[in-house]
């Protein structure tokens, strides 16, 4: 499975998802055997670097400054192959589906829906004035990622009971 997280600019929410979910996959034998890659991209804005508050949130999660600084935001028009290869494209708000290239929209689901089956928009932490508000959004995202990882794990196990971990 190939998982692509999308957001507006690929500088806050989606790279946070990419880093955190990739680690969740690496730490789970069932997921690591079934998830080929985890990436992120922007569907609205082309940017050059990760947002400084996103870097702080990822440092708080234990990622190193060098691995965070190595992140280069992707943009839909610059990387159509990633969109084409993704098995699932996970957005933060329904607007992200609209900005996804039309031919890939059938693969788009919102993070809250992927995690719980119900839609709740993930606010843009870029709009939060203070770091506490920013962290609150990232903590919400992490909870959804944990639920999505568990849901995906259960789907894999029910499809192939021989897998265990």
UniProtKB/TrEMBL annotation:
GO molecular function: protein tyrosine phosphatase activity
Coiled-coil segments on the chain, per record: none
Protein origin, superkingdom: Bacteria
UniProt-listed InterPro entries: LMW_PTPase, Ptyr_pPase, Ptyr_pPase_sf
Domain Phosphotyrosine protein phosphatase I: 1-151
The protein's name: Phosphotyrosine protein phosphatase I domain-containing protein
Native organism: Candidatus Stercoripulliclostridium merdipullorum
Classification of source organism: Bacteria, Bacillati, Bacillota, Clostridia, Eubacteriales
